Amino acid sequence: MEVISQVTLFIVSLIANMFSAFSGGGAGLFQLPALIFFSLSFSTALATHKIASVALGIGATLRHWRESHLDRQFSLFILVAGLPGVVFGALLILNIEDRHAEIALGLLTAGLGLFSVLNKTLGVVNNPKRRNRQGYLLGGLGLFFIGVLNGSLTSGTGLFVTLWLVTWFGLDYKRAVAYTLVLVGLFWNGVGAITLGLQTPVKWSYLPALLLGSLIGGYAGAHLSIVANNKIIKRVFEVATLIIGIKLMIG
């Protein structure tokens, strides 16, 4: 049974993280419920998922390293704005009832997908904007709030970062997904994993299969996002947000 469990977790992790790395988020939609299905408490499943999801960032970073167009100063801004929110959210989730928040998050996620569907040209062309003091201030507040969601509920919040970078800062989907995979997948999730791991038990025996699936899936998904055009990434993003939003609402 242990071998079957490990193989199942590897397959779930591989598919979830490949999908996530291509669309810019959403691994928690599949991976977190799978861990709960294996009789883990929500907090233990969340901490275990967070640690495993760091491998997604590693796999994606390995693929984006040679072809990335990430701006170092803008990357630092995303980290500085979002990481405090991640820590706050990770501390908060262990002390509150999460069901109502999940429903609200589901409505917002589905709404983001519909917003992208209705805006046909959104994220198709890279058109940087709001790169002034006020733009960075409000954009940073948005990233902080998304960081809180990332540290607490985790499912689909990478998609929030992707769409925020597209709508507020004018990035195309390809660039926005790259920022999300590297900075959220590796750094935000890493800080969230440490914060949660220090407060709640982790199912260490499940991590080898999860980490391997996340690493391979992250690399493969990042490769697909690099070779695909923005219109395809946009469509996959929209499907992901709608599916995740509905899943969060129905539980």
How would you characterize this protein structure?
- By secondary structure, this protein is mostly helical.
- It is 78% helix and 0% strand.
- It is built from ten helices and no strands.
- The protein has helices spanning 2-23, 27-37, 42-64, 72-93, 99-118, 133-152, 157-167, 173-197, 207-227, 230-250.
- It is globular.
- The two termini are 27 Å apart.
Q: Which helices and strands, and how do they pair?
A:
Layout (H helix, E strand, L loop, with lengths): L1 H22 L3 H11 L4 H23 L7 H22 L5 H20 L14 H20 L4 H11 L5 H25 L9 H21 L2 H21 L1
Assembly classification: single chain
Q: Could you describe the largest sheet, including whether it forms a barrel?
A: none
Order of helices and strands: HHHHHHHHHH
What is the average of the pLDDT values? 85
Structural class: mainly alpha
Percent range for helical residues? over 70%
Number of strands: 0
Strand content: under 5%
